[in-house]
Amino acid sequence: MELRNTTTDEIVEVIIIDPRTGLDISDDLIGNTMHNFSWNDEHECWETDLEDLKWWQEFAVEYQEADEAVFQFFHDIKEYVDECEEEKIKDWYNDYIGGVEFNDLPNTMMVFVEEKKKELGMY
Q: Which sequence spans correspond to the domains of the chain?
């Protein structure tokens, strides 16, 4: 997603690729939170100040890492549990992250992966 830095007028890409589909989901994530963003008709993109832009760039890196870890975890557990147990773990994962503050999502995703790997003896 292109974001315009209102401090420097620079256009910056924030990209988060869904490891399941290969699609850029940054528009969806940013679009769901549009806090401190405004639309710039001239540049035809969303814009925000330097502080929020830096936050999104850091969040994108953290989220990408966490999403890839979750994807890999669910790929790898097939060797440790049967299909029924895998579905229970997926449901538990959705409940686990369901009520988490957006800012805490990447960390919570990583904690889930680490706890479950340990519990399943995947180390």
A: 2-120
